[in-house]
Structure formats: C-alpha cells, structure tokens
Amino acid sequence: MTSPLEHHRTSFADYRPEHFLFALDQGVATITLNRPERKNPLTFQSYAELRDLFRALQGASDVDVVVITGAGGNFCSGGDVHEIIGPLTKMSMPELLEFTQMTGDLVKAMRACPQPLVAAIDGVCAGAGAILAMASDLRYGTSGSKTAFLFTRVGLAGCDMGACAILPRIIGQGRAAELLYTGRSMSGEEAFAWGFFNRLCAPDALGSDTATLARQIASGPTFAHGVTKKMLHQEWSMSVDEAIDAEAQAQAICMQTRDFTRAYEAFAARRAPVFEGD
Predict the structure, then answer these.
(1) Domain boundaries, the chain
(2) Rg (Cα) of the chain, in Å, rounded?
(3) Do 154 and 263 touch, CB atoms closer than 8 A?
(4) Residue 1 confidence (pLDDT) above 50
(5) Nearest to residue 131, comparing CAs of 174, 162, 165?
(6) DSSP labels for 80-104?
(7) pLDDT of 82 above 90
(8) Mean pLDDT over all residues of the chain?
(9) Euclidean distance between the first and final Cα of the chain, in Å?
(10) Among 14, 16, 120, 122, whose CB has the most other CB atoms within 10 angstroms?
C-alpha cells in the first residue's frame, strides 16, 4: 500500500535551474556554481534559487546525497560585488533586512533538508561561499583552497548567515573568532588540521574523492541518514539528558524501517545489505 506521503514526493530527474548547474546520478545530486570567469559569485537570484532548491529537497524521491562544488578551479567568491554589494549600499533598512533574512533562510534550508550535503572545495571559498561550505555536513578540500569569512573586510560583522553559531562548533571558539575578526584566509592545510575539512585531496582527485564519498553515503540507509542529520542539528540546543532521550525516540523509529530488517537478514545470510531508504 502506498503511503499518502508518496503523493507529495518529487522527482528531480528533470530539474533544470537557471542560475547554477544541476546533475543527478544514482541518488547523488551535484550542484555546480557556474560563473568561472568571476570565481562563481552569488547573485540575488542564485541565493533565492538555492534556497528554494534546498527547501524542495525535503520532498525529493530520488536525491539521497547532494554535492556542492564550483566550476573552473574555484568554489565560490561570495556575493557578487557589482550585482549584490553595490546595490546593498543604496537599500533602505527594510530592504536590507529582507535580503539578510533571505540569505539566512538559505542556510536554514540547507540544515533542514534531510540529505547529507558534501562540499568539494578548491581555490577561492570566500564570504557567502565560505558559508555554503560551513553549512554543508562534510567538506573535502585541497591544499590550494583559501577559505575566508571576509565580512569584516567589507565593513560588516562576522555574524553572517549563522557563522557565529556554526563555525565555532566545527573548528572551536578561538579559531572561529580569529577568522571572523580578521577576515583572513584559512589555508587548506589549516582547514584540515582544524577540522573544517574532513579530507585534504589532491586537486585532480577532489572530484573523484568527493564522488566516492557521496556514493558511499547514498548506498547507506538514507532514511536513517536523514534522522542522523536532524539530530546532529537539533541537539545543539539540548542538554545531554534531553539529547539521550531524543536519540532513543529517533532510534526506535529507525528500528521500524525495512532497512533495519534488511541489514539483519543480510547479516544472518552473511551477505552485504542493500538499503532502499524505507
């Protein structure tokens, strides 16, 4: 019997965005920021389209993992100087707040979508680009990458799009404070040593290494992965006792899935389980 929820699930096989590239292969969706001549900056339109995509992925039927990357050897140079920063200097306070809330909504949508997000980072990763990397669940980078939360260098606070909440949880309070106060670039080696990067890859292997990780995650129990992501996010604001109780409920739900039964049956038969996400 088909669940009523199935009627609200959406296939992304034919999804064609206007402001970036999107490809889907066996459950792995790849978002490629594609303005290489400008090091892949964001615009008002691409911010909004990314936000809408991540919101829609909550109902995806055929996307298990999302890879975010940039074209031309760079990840993302942040907000486009001419198409975003210039116009912002002429906006009223209500217009500015509408913009900052919209960019914050992008991060909220990234954290709320159930699919694990993997960022593949080479070259420039700055400003809002660094935020996209930060808001991802896993990050692979190269020694040639330069990650900069450079908001202070344009006269703004470092507290942009959740940076003061999320970055310290990844690399520690002191290191985050230094990057957010100075706006300096974090090298690839620093990013790996500090835990911002999960792996440091050779530039010519970044794509293949990231794809291997994405396929590995996509082959796992995808419903359970969504629960893991949700709990990783929600438990930031819980006490340890509250977190243990919440995890007990979450795990009991996962024990009702067919994937859990498949894993047991495969173990009993001494074969590898094949998960189907239900």
Answers:
(1) 4-218, 222-268
(2) 19
(3) no
(4) no
(5) 162
(6) -IIIIIHHHTT--HHHHHHHHHHHH
(7) no
(8) 93
(9) 13
(10) 120
- For 119-130, the pLDDT digits (tens) are 999 999 999 999
Residue type at 149 in one-letter notation: F
Query: Does pTM surpass 0.85?
Result: yes
CA 75 to chain CA mean position, Å:
13
Contact status, residue 167 vs residue 179, Cβ threshold 8 Å? yes
Count of H-run helices and E-run strands, the chain: 11, 9
- Is the separation of the CB atoms in 267 and 259 below 8 Å? no
What is the DSSP secondary structure assignment for residue 257, as one 8-state letter?
Answer: S
- Phi, psi at residue 147, to the nearest 5°? -105, 125
Calpha distance 72→164 (Å, rounded) = 30
Looking at the chain, list the stretches that DSSP marks H as alpha helix, in order from N- to C-terminal side: 44-56, 86-88, 93-112, 128-135, 163-171, 173-182, 188-193, 206-218, 222-234, 240-254, 258-268
Class of the CATH domain delimited by 4-218:
alpha beta
Amino acid sitting at position 143: S
pLDDT exceeds cutoff 90 at 3: no
Q: Which residues pair with 23 in a beta bridge?
A: 30
Length of the chain: 278
Contact 43, 83 (CB under 8 A): yes
Give residue for tokens 């293949």: 208
* Ordered strands of the 124-126 beta sheet: 124-126, 146-148, 185-187
**pLDDT at residue 17 is higher than 60:** yes
